[in-house]
Amino acid sequence: MSKYEDKYNIKEDKKLTDFHLNRRMFCIYNDKVEIAPVDVSYSHADWFEKEGWMTKDDDKLMDLIPRGIINDQEDIIFYVGNEFAINKDIELLFFKHLKELVNKLDLDTSKQIFGGLTRGEPNTIWPPTKSYGTIADNL
Asked: Its domain of life (predicted)?
C-alpha cells in the first residue's frame, strides 16, 4: 500500500499493481527524460520519492513536470498533475523530448501518442483525453 493512496484518492489493489507492472514510467525532470526501473509495482509519486525529487509533504513536482507511461500496447500516454491533465506548456515540453524518449526506450514509431487521462472508476483503464497520432507523425 502506498502512502499516497489517501492523498491522491487512488486505491491500490492487485488490479492496480498488475497495471503498474505492465507499464513503463517516464518523466521529464531537469530538462531530460528519466526512465523508471523495469517491472515496478509502484506509482510515479513513489518513484519520485525514491529518487529524492519529492516527499509526501512536498509533492508540487507532480504538478510541474510531464510524466507518463508506455502502456502494454506500447503507446505513449503523458500528463501532468494529480488530475492527469494536459496543457500547452506540458505538450511543448513533452514533444521537445519525444525523440530522446523514443531513443532511450527504442520505441516502435508506428505506436500512438496520447495526452491526458479522463478519470474513471477506481482501478479501471481511464481513456486518454487527446490523440496526437503516431510517434512517427510527431518526430
From this structure: Bacteria
